[in-house]
Amino acid sequence: MSAPVGCQAACSQPQSCRGWWVHLFTLACILFTHSGLADDLARREQELQQLRERIATIQDRITQARGERSRLSRQLQKSEKSIGRIARRLRTLRQQGRRVRQRIDELQTRQREQAATLRRQRQLLAQQVRAAYVMGRQERLRLVLDQDDPGEISRLLTYYD
Fold first, then answer.
1. 59-72 as b/e, with b when 16 or more CB fall inside 10 Å?
2. How many whole angstroms separate alpha carbon 42 and alpha carbon 30?
3. pLDDT per residue over 102-118, tens digit each?
């Protein structure tokens, strides 16, 4: 490669002209690289801006999620209190149910006992009516004198009538 025409006249040493070209080439490379760096820097700035926007979006979502979590937590707390009240009411109703069933059992037992007592009394009454019929038409005085129990005397006189 030869030095420019103006350079040969001005330069007495051709080697120093070559150095000038090297400097010029280096400067051109730096400028070219610098423009590439500027493009790269602009691209990176754009990426950084996009990342900032994504971070802001994610932070908004996190804030919304925290609000939703807080709301759901309050709702859960209300539900748990409601479940507690319902459980207490259910426990009370079960206890009342047990007491009612126990009372029903007691009343049924009492009813069976009274039914058995009624059957026995009917049998006794039937026996006494038969006995009065067998005795025939005895006088009232004799009936009264033969009995020891005043309750039985009253009953017999009622039957006799």
1. eeeeeeeeeeeeee
2. 18
3. 999 999 999 999 999 99
